[in-house]
Amino acid sequence: CQWCMMPLDAELDLHQCASCVYAMHVSFAHRAQTCPQCGAVLFPEQTRSVECKACGETFLTSHEEDPYALQCTRCGAFQEEVKAGQNYLVVDLDAKRAYNMLRSMGLTGRPSMVLTSEFPGKVREENNLGDDFEVKWLTETTGDIDSVNVKDLEGDAMETVSTFLMTTKRSGLLLDGIEAIISENGFDAALAFIRRLNDLATIHGASIIMWYDRGRLTEAQDKALSDEFDELHDYL
Fold first, then answer.
1. Is 62 helix (H, G, I), strand (E, B) or coil?
2. pLDDT tens-digit profile of 94-146?
3. What is the DSSP letter of 191?
4. CA-to-CA separations, 61 to 50, 71, 74, 80, in angstroms, rounded
5. pLDDT tens sequence across 9-28
């Protein structure tokens, strides 16, 4: 495959050009939009044209994508910017869109960190995070360099985050684990932690992203948390 350089018989979904039956991986097809063999549009019933905000060229896309994941096929620019000094709340059934926002920062050279209650290896694999992204595990297990004590918000957790934000310019932080923080520390302590994170982001020109599924919190918790963010991206 010309895009991912994987053999076509690898266990990946394939797409075949309707005009010349050229076979390619689906990921390459969505990226290219036109057949590399004959030039035909690969998804005519889904395709729309987008004018790139960076280079001004028009490119084709078949994805109804989150704009933070949409890249120009000509210059590679993301079509929505995560702004430095701004904080974002993503309310959704899963963290996919939040990780898209983080990746858009990382892939444009902004240092990025994840605080997650999930196992770091799983997070990296599921969200296509390379070694340039730091992933810290919110857990009761201590002693590992990639572990952050979820019960020590004012100590271990805040020290980890503040050191990262103070020593990197225009960095980004994704918090994927607010429910675990609330469970281990109570809501008031979790809310105070979020406020301090957002204050640090403003001071150091960083971007804080947090996500949760509203159905897992109370109405009052949802309201209190959403009031702390500059932008709410609500997909529920």
1. coil
2. 998 899 889 888 878 899 999 999 999 999 998 888 888 999 999 987 667 78
3. H
4. 7, 9, 12, 15
5. 666 788 888 889 888 888 78
* CB-CB contact of 204 with 167 (8 Å): no
- Taking all residues of the chain, what is their mean pLDDT, rounded to a whole number? 87
Amino acid at residue number 63: H
For 159-173, write each residue's pLDDT tens digit: 999 999 999 989 999
Q: Which residues pair with 58 in a beta bridge?
A: 51
C-alpha angle 28-119-213 in degrees, rounded to nearest 5? 80
Helix, strand, coil % in the chain, rounded to nearest 5: 35, 20, 45
Which residue bears the tokens 């980004």?
172
- Rounded CA-CA distance 211/102 in Å is 12
Using alpha carbons, list the distances in angstroms from residue 167 to 88, 111, 160, 171, 200. Answer: 21, 10, 11, 9, 12
Distance, CA of 207 to CA of 128 (rounded, Å): 20
Q: Which of 148, 157, 232 is nearest to 189 (CA)?
A: 157
Q: Which of 72, 78, 68, 80 is nearest to 31 (CA)?
A: 72
Report field, pTM of the whole predicted structure over 0.85: no
